[in-house]
Amino acid sequence: MNFILDNLLSLILWIPALTAIVILLLPRTKVKLIRWVAFLGSLLPLALSLVLWFQYDAAQAGFQFMQRMVWYEAVNASYFLGVDGISVTMVLLTTLLTPAAVLISWSIKENVRSYMVLFMLLETGMLGVFMALDLMLFFVFWEVGLVPMYFLINQWGSGNRDYASIKFLIYTMAGSLGLLLAIQLIGVASGTFDLLQIMEQWPALSEPLTLLGLPISLSIETVKVIAFWAFVIAFAIKVPVWPFHTWLPDAHTEAPTAGSMILAGVLLKLGAYGFLRLVLPLYPEQAQTYAGVLGLLAVLAIIMGALSSWGQKDFKRLVAYSSVNHMGFVILGIAAYAYAGTTLAADDAVIALNGAVLQMFNHGLSAAGMFLLVGVIYERTHTRDLDAFGGLFPLAPVYGGILLFTSMASLGLPGLNGFVSEFMVVRGAWPIFTLYTALAMIGLLITGAYIVKAIRLVLHGPMNERWQGQHLEINRREVFSIAPLMVLMLWIGVWPAWIVKVINQTVLRWFG
Amino acid sequence: MIGPELLAFLVPLPPLLAFFVIVLLTNRKNRLSHRLAVGAMVISWAMAMTIFGLAVSRGDLGHHPIAASVAWLPMGEGVLNLGILIDPLNAITLFFVAWTCLAIFLYSVGYHNFGKPRDPQDRAGLPPKAGGIEPMYARFFAFISLFAFGMLTLSVSDNLLLLFIGWEIMGLCSYLLIGFWYGKDSAKRAMVKAFITTRVGDVFMLLGIAYLYAATGTVNYREILFDEHVLQTLAQMPSVIGGLSAGGLIGLLLFIGTVGKSAQWPLHVWLPDAMEGPTPVSAMIHAATMVSAGVYLMARFFPLVTIGWHEGGALTPTMTLVAVIGAFTALFAATIAVAQNDIKRVLAYSTISQLGYMVAAVGIGAYVAAVFHLVTHAFFKALLFLSSGSVIHGMEHGIHETHDHVDPGDMTNMGGLRRKMPITFWTFLIGGLALSGFPLLTAGFWSKDEILADAFAHGRMVIFVVLALAALLTAFYTMRQITLTFLGKPRTQAAEHAHESVWTMTLPLVVLSVFAVAAGWAGIPDHFPVIGGLIPNWVHGFVGGTLLEHPEAVAFSAVPLLVSISVALGGLLLGWLVYRRVTADAKDPLARLLGPVHTLFKNKYYFDELYDLIFIRPAYWLAETVSYRWIDRGLIDGILHAIGRFALRVGAFLRNVIDLPVINGSADMFSEGVKGAGRGFRVVQTGRVQQYLIVGLLFTGVILSYLLLANP
Predict the structure, then answer these.
(1) Looking at the structure, do residues B578 and B550 belong to the same domain, yes or no?
(2) Residues from chain A contacting residue B195 (CB–CB below 8 Å)
(3) Per residue in B528-584, pLDDT tens?
(4) CA angle at A70 for the pair A67 and A75, rounded to the nearest 5°
(5) Does the complex come out with an ipTM higher than 0.90?
(6) CB 3.0 to 4.6 Å from B329: which of A153, B15, B265, B623, for a disulfide?
(7) pLDDT digits over B425-467, tens only?
(8) Smallest Cβ distance to A350: which of B76, B175, B195?
(9) CB–CB of B188 and A456 under 8 A?
(10) Do B555 and B616 lie in a common domain?
């Protein structure tokens, strides 16, 4: 037991990768065995994350479950893990969504072994980002997650997968480029990649940098602004913030169901997490200066994302665009905090930031759920065209009920999870960005329009005779896969204190 | 022993439990499902009545309410508490909500033909064709249970956030229930319309909540509304909009929520279409509970809406707006109602109009009158909707028997139903008279009269005249409805064979009729001639206690009373005179009289078409064409693709201009040079050992001679 607790983070992080190796050793034809090994291999990190969640002491300051080993001595980079209330929430989300996604991947028929190997590696990559306390390590995991996702889209995706996968890869890489340079810059300037040390030194750094003896004399402010934007653009692409979002509808639409679930559920959170973990602590001044711009882009994401979603005829693309809309609230909360965190309105700012973190978790649940449901209907009808459905409710009553429930969570119906976080963001951002918050309401209205549009075209209306007599009902495995998400959606909606308490303590300490 | 606080917490829960049990477990068992739903509602009703009894017997409930709360959400350093509050307003709301809901639950059993076998040609999502049991019977009870949960939650809440939660849950249920027969195209459109239109109000309301919470640090009613200091701060704090105080703006934002939920102009368009739902739904959502929630919100936040106003003083900008919208809606909807032929649509417009009455009452500061009318209206309008459902049911029966396929809801197809459906007739008559404000006897008279008296007493003449006109039209269209439906002779075969409904439907009608009459007697003004003071004016004393300062009763004046009596009786008489001789296939007498104006009324002033033209189409164009096609696909992706193409060009350039000629070229040159040299030297490589030896000897000789010559 002690071994487990002492190495908890490493275990959670590496068990998926180990599982990948095990799967690699299995014979290619034992599909059933491969699936079960992958499923169990993803359940184990979930169990350990639950241990982590309950062992995590919200009242205690600083990072917990820290683990540190020398890794890359020459540049002072170390294998350094640790979690606080924000990352522990994200770790839980990741380990929760992965088994659900693996379970829904039973429908993958070709090349199951490679698929599952990639999936497991993907999980390690994502978890690493949430746990890393070393900038170098952070970057490595940041990039590691990309590769499996590229192949998942490229190999198991639908129609336009080549375009979508390359767009996803190149776009994200383009962002990473600046991120890598900025990380190097910070590393050189601080003499270490240890995030805790950097957080103390870097924001206070004021003497001019003599960069590698290069004959440039930039003031430290300019250097910081450049590095700030390098970080922001990398993360903004990942979130994605409008107008860096157009890779998302393509990637989400073409990816296999489980890929979309993870993409929307976790990968987008990496960007937002980058803002929380790196941008806000490392660049408080620059963040405050440019918070207005960020807030504007967030509002544009909320409004334009909702509008574009409403304009879709493709069910999956509609859900994909809804992510742009929902993640806009995360960025709005972050921007509100960045603007007012150190001013008189700090109370409001903390509420907004709390809302942003909770919105990350909530969007993870509802977006993954929505993609799962789109996948279920796609598998049976082989179409995503909204006009091709119609009146399916009597044919698939259970599916219809689940779709209604999940869409309502996504819409932010009070009583379900999305409302709590959106309310917190709106409540916190209103005194800080009054106009932006008011404008965001347009997005909230359109959110209603596109959700209702999807339900209307899929479930309601006269039954499309084309599907008469076909078996469209959701099966038990799929219900089993989405049920935990639904339970959480309801639970957070009714009694959010259990999770907000953990987030709130950290936010207060970090940023309060 | 359960304390009253715990009891209030428990009131909304049984229907919620029933909802989950029906959805998850008993959704295929009709009898068990309705037993669960009705049983749960009976338990809630009993708890509500107990609480009401406790509340009434408690002296000075306004200052010593039943209240409790729990910590719900950590918010930074603070915490958000949610809880329950039983003060006079909540107690009386709980009273009428519990009664009407119970009546409607019971009615639904008969309405959905419980006990009849399922007709094999019926399909889920379409109304039963020939009197078979509703295919989605259990689902209906699940939905109305969830709905009742929402309304009961709202009725016991002690804060704005919990109110909003109940409010939105009702919104969802209303959406699902309007579209209960989702297979019908019209129902499908109506559900979307209702959801989106009310959501317009809801997003403003959300802003209002956020604003109020940010400005005061709480959402609890009493901490805001019972605290002079907080109210004063809100009244003085400038808002983001110039000329309005923060309190005034918050009141306005909340009012927009009311406009959506209570279907006030200009967001009224959803309610008439909502009649696509089954009748119990119309009664519950669109008369007794959900639309009342909007007015309840206004009554609840009366101190905030009227911030900066002193009794008898000039109206604040926010109040003026509220009063004008309310009064305008009251008259506007009444004019539409006179030209509708669908029995439920008339009631729908009548509801909009009556809600306008209440909103106007809040706007002119007539707090008690507004709440009083809210209560009486809930009873008599629920009664009218349920009666009309019974009429439609009877007509459907006739249609089924005679195969005379006419629209069962169209009043021009009815006539003479008083003999076929006596209980329905008498209860409808009672409800109709109450709606018209038939003097002295009915509840509607007392509550409506109080609003008119208040407007008159405080000199709000425009409001007074508009409301009096609306009352005249109300009496007129109500009598038109009664005459067309029940009086005269049957105009179709179906009406000839109509049939009284089963007891589960008629019993609720009778119960509601009692309230439609008697509820008014609790609020007879003390100064009323002759009968005033015989029954103490309980409503004024009780409801007035909700406010920090008890509002003054309006002094008696004969003018509004006479106006009120004459418009009611005059309207009823006119309605009867105009419509008593309508025969089958005859044109509406009013259409002859009013001509194009009637067409305008009949087409609801073309608001649907107008909104479609100026809001819906442009918005969708913005979404589909501008945001998606032009910006995302065209502009942003265009730039990305251009960058991609540029990168490819650069690559091609590098290859064609630098790689190929320069790098490859120089490499080639080198290799060609080597090759050439090789070719040149190849002649030496003969492979003959003798030649190699000769060459070797020659070289050795040259080197030796050099060494010897150099080092003598």
Answers:
(1) yes
(2) 448, 452
(3) 777 777 777 888 888 888 887 778 777 788 888 888 889 989 989 988 888 888 777
(4) 125
(5) yes
(6) B265
(7) 999 999 999 999 888 888 888 888 889 988 888 888 899 999 9
(8) B76
(9) yes
(10) no
Q: Is A208 on the interface with B (CB under 8 A)?
A: no
Q: Whole-angstrom Cα distance, residue B257 to residue B199?
A: 8
For residue range A60-106, list pLDDT tens digits in order.
Answer: 888 999 998 888 888 888 999 999 999 999 999 999 999 999 999 99
Give the residue carrying structure tokens 């080993």: A69
Host domain of residue B376: 315-601
Could you give the C-alpha distances from B448 to A328, B321, B428, B472, B570, in angstroms and in order?
48, 21, 19, 12, 16
In the block, which residue shows the tokens 């009352």? B471
Q: Is the minimum CB–CB distance between A498 and chain B shorter than 8 Å?
A: no
Q: Would you say A71 and A78 are in contact if contact means Cβ atoms under 8 Å apart?
A: yes
Check whether residue B470 and residue B572 sit in a common domain. yes
Average confidence (pLDDT) over B329-353: 91
**Structural element, H or E, at residue B149:** helix B137-156
φ/ψ bin of B310: left (φ > 0), alpha (ψ from -120 to 50), beta (otherwise) = beta
Whether residues B560 and B492 share a domain: the answer is: yes
Same domain assignment for residues B395 and B435? yes
**A362-417 residue pLDDT tens:** 999 999 999 999 999 998 888 889 988 888 888 888 999 999 999 999 999 999 99
CB of B389 within 8 A of CB of B283?
yes
* DSSP classification of residue B656: I
Q: What is the pLDDT of residue A210?
A: 59
Residues 468-497 of A with CB under 8 A from B: 495-497
What integer pLDDT is reported at residue A216 of this predicted model? 60
Determine contact: A393 vs chain B, CB below 8 A.
yes
Please give the mean pLDDT across all residues of chain A.
90
Sign of CA dihedral A372, A377, A383, A388: negative
Could B640 and A350 be called an inter-chain contact, meaning their C-beta atoms sit closer than 8 Å? no
Residues 352-381, chain A, touching B (beta carbon < 8 A): 354
- Cβ of B196 within 8 Å of Cβ of A460? The answer is no
Q: Which residue of A has its CA nearest to B149?
A: A415
> In chain B, positions 106-135, which contact chain A (CB-CB < 8 Å)?
123-125
DSSP state of A70: E
Q: What does the alpha-carbon distance between residue A161 and residue A256 come to, in Å, rounded to a whole number?
A: 10
DSSP assignment of B601-646: HHTGGGHHHHHIIIIIHHHHHIIIIIIIIIIIIIIIHHHHHHHHHH
Question: In the listed set B559, B574, B601, which residue is the last one of a domain according to the structure?
Answer: B601
Does B203 contact A312 at a Cβ distance shorter than 8 Å? no
Check CB contact of B80 with chain A, cutoff 8 Å: no
Domain count, chain B: 2
Interval B510-516 mean pLDDT? 90
Q: Are residues B587 and B626 in the same domain?
A: no
Measure the CA–CA gap between A281 and B291, rounded to whole angstroms: 48
| A316-320 mean pLDDT | 93
Residue B174 near residue B194, CB atoms below 8 Å: yes
Q: Is the residue at B517 inside a domain?
A: yes
Q: Could you tell me which chain B residue has the CA closest to the CA of A460?
A: B182
Q: Return the exposure string of B434-447: e unless at least 16 CB atoms fall within 10 Å of the residue's CB, then b.
A: bbbbbbeebbbbbb
Question: Is B645 within the bounds of a domain?
Answer: yes
- Which backbone phi and psi does B435 adopt, to 5 degrees? -60, -40
Same domain flag for B488 and B617: no
**Closest to B149 (Cα-Cα) out of B290, B260, B334:** B290
Task: Mark whether B546 and B687 lie in a shared domain.
Answer: no
Maximal CA-CA distance, chain A: 76
φ/ψ region of B606 (left if φ > 0, alpha if ψ in -120 to 50, else beta) reads left
Residue B626 at interface with chain A, using a CB cutoff of 8 Å: yes
**Least CB–CB distance from A311: residue in B78, B184, B624:** B624
Residue of B123, B195, B633 with shortest CB distance to A394: B123
Q: Does B236 touch chain A (CB under 8 A)?
A: no
